[in-house]
C-alpha cells in the first residue's frame, strides 16, 4: 500500500507495498495499453516500465465497479490506510488539506526499515492524485493514482503508477519481479475494499 521477519525473498511478496502511498480521464485511455475484455473480466494488468527520468517502476490497471466519489474517498481515507495497505508498519498524517496531504511512513523491506515522508497532491480531485518523496529513505519516490472513465457505465479504470529509486543498489530484475507480484495483490485487495464498502477481511 508485514510486521514480521524479512528476507530478500520477501521482496517478491511485499517489498513494494509502501509505494502505493502513495495520471486525466477519457474512455479510450489512449496513453496506456488497455484490453477492456480482460479488465472487465476482473484481471489486474501489471507492467514494469521506466519513467521519463529512467527510473524503474510499475503500472497497474484494473476495473472497479463503484461510484467515482466513493473510489476517491477511499484513496484519501487516511484513517483506514493501514487496513487498506497492511504492509505499512507505522503511519502518520503530518499535514492535510484540500490540496493534498503530507504523510510519514515506516515500511520494512527485505530486512531493512525505511522511514520517509511523502507529499500527496490532489491534482484533479476525483480523478487524479500524485505523490513524491520529500525526505527520508530512498533517493526518490514518485507515483500516482488515476480514476478514468470506461465504455461501461458505473465502472471505472484505476491506473496506478509508482517509481522508486533506492539509495543503495538493488538489482532491478529482483525488485521489479517482486513489485509486479505484490502490486497485483495490492490492487485486488483495494478493489475488494472499494466494492465491498470497506469491509475486506
Estimated structural class: alpha+beta
Task: Report the sheet-strand fraction.
Answer: 35-45%
Query: What is the total number of structural domains?
Result: 1
Number of strands: 8
In the CATH scheme, the class would be: Alpha Beta
Helix content: 10-25%
How do the helices and strands follow one another from N- to C-terminus?
Answer: HHEEHHEEEEEEH
Unreliable parts: 1-30
Backbone shape: globular
Largest sheet: 8 strands, antiparallel
Report the average pLDDT across residues: 80
Radius of gyration: 16 Å
Strands ordered across the widest β-sheet: 1-2-8-7-6-5-4-3
CATH architecture: 2-Layer Sandwich
CATH topology: Alpha-D-Glucose-1,6-Bisphosphate, Chain A, domain 4
Pfam family, one: Polyketide_cyc
Protein name: Coenzyme Q-binding protein COQ10 START domain-containing protein
Family: Belongs to the ribosome association toxin RatA family.
Domain Coenzyme Q-binding protein COQ10 START: 64-190
